[in-house]
Write a structure and sequence with these properties.
Elements: H1 2-14, H2 18-35, H3 45-69, H4 73-95, H5 99-104, E1 106-110, H6 118-134, H7 138-141, H8 152-157, E2 159-163, H9 171-227, H10 234-237, E3 259-261, E4 274-279, E5 282-288, E6 293-294
Antiparallel strand pairs: 1-2, 3-4, 4-5, 5-6
Helix pairs in contact: 3-4, 3-9, 4-6
Length: 295
């Protein structure tokens, strides 16, 4: 009897109660889950490029406002960069991703998988990306050759960009962003070519028009000489000649952007009289009475 009581007591002590199993079980499974190996997938160059394009679209209007507010080129440059830095640091500090990275399902973490500190983000976004720019973009291209697919700014801040398992991958956003960027680049190049060609044609047309008008003036000066008039009346009332019934005036070339530099001339100087029309960014047009034309 005493032996049976000892066996019962031993079995009772060696087996946990049902209630104690319910308390212990969640703790055990939680530790296993925490200690379990989680696969990390690093984000490559093109998906990060697509994310940066989305961010560029997000920042386009604020950057335009900055360009309107700040007139000086240095002020614009500084204000735009401060905008970009503030946006990236705030979003990464609060969400671990910018809107672009959210769109393609990415997160920024430290190498050991933790959330980057504010100091690391400042180092990454300001110092690191400034160095990326100084390397003419090579700092970004090393993503393709890095084991953890780190850019130069990632290596400096000891961070990585990984796929976030809680966010759905959106491959179509990558493809669409690349197509849009290529399209915008092609449109920009085409528009630049058209603009340059149009400006060149307009400039040539303006020069031809001015030269035509000024050659007419050359002929009027010759008539003025024959009439016995003086060309120096130009300085008084823009008249070509002060001879009687000779009322032709100098054409207004200011609408075409040209400035007239015409010295006063006495009758004795009419044989060599000349004047110049100048325009910033365009060749001068020189009109000579001696040669009888404008060039």
């Amino acid at each position: 009897m005493e032996e049976q009581n000892i066996n019962v007591l031993h079995e009772t002590q060696s087996q946990p109660t049902e209630q104690s199993q319910q308390i212990i079980q969640p703790e055990t499974s939680s530790k296993i889950q925490q200690s379990g190996t989680i696969s990390v997938e690093y984000a490559g160059f093109w998906v990060r490029f697509a994310a940066s394009l989305v961010d560029a679209l997000v920042l386009a209007i604020p950057a335009l406002i900055m360009n309107i507010i700040f007139r000086q080129s240095f002020e614009r440059f500084l204000a735009t960069n401060v905008l970009i830095w503030a946006y990236a640091i705030y979003m990464l500090h609060t969400k671990q991703a910018t809107f672009g990275k959210m769109a393609v399902g990415l997160n920024v973490t430290t190498i050991d998988g933790n959330k980057p500190t504010l100091g690391k983000l400042v180092l990454r976004e300001i110092i690191g990306k400034t160095l990326d720019g100084l390397t003419i973009g090579i700092g970004y291209l090393i993503i393709m050759f890095s084991g953890r697919k780190q850019a130069l700014h990632d290596k400096i801040a000891n961070t990585v960009v990984v796929y976030d398992p809680t966010r759905k991958k959106r491959t179509w956003i990558v493809i669409l962003a690349i197509i849009i960027s290529v399209g915008i680049l092609a449109i920009g190049i085409l528009a630049k070519i058209i603009l340059v060609s149009t400006n060149s044609m307009k400039e040539k047309a303006d020069q031809s028009m001015v030269a035509y008008e000024e050659e007419r003036i050359i002929n009027e000066i010759k008539v003025c000489k024959l009439d016995g008039g003086n060309v120096n009346a130009y300085q008084v009332n823009n008249a070509i000649c002060d001879a009687p019934y000779h009322g032709v005036t100098w054409p207004d070339t200011s609408s075409l952007g040209y400035k007239l530099n015409a010295p006063a001339a006495e009758n004795a100087a009419l044989a060599t009289y000349s004047f110049i029309l100048s325009k910033e960014g365009a060749p001068n047009i020189v009109c000579s009475l001696a040669e009888g034309n404008c060039k």
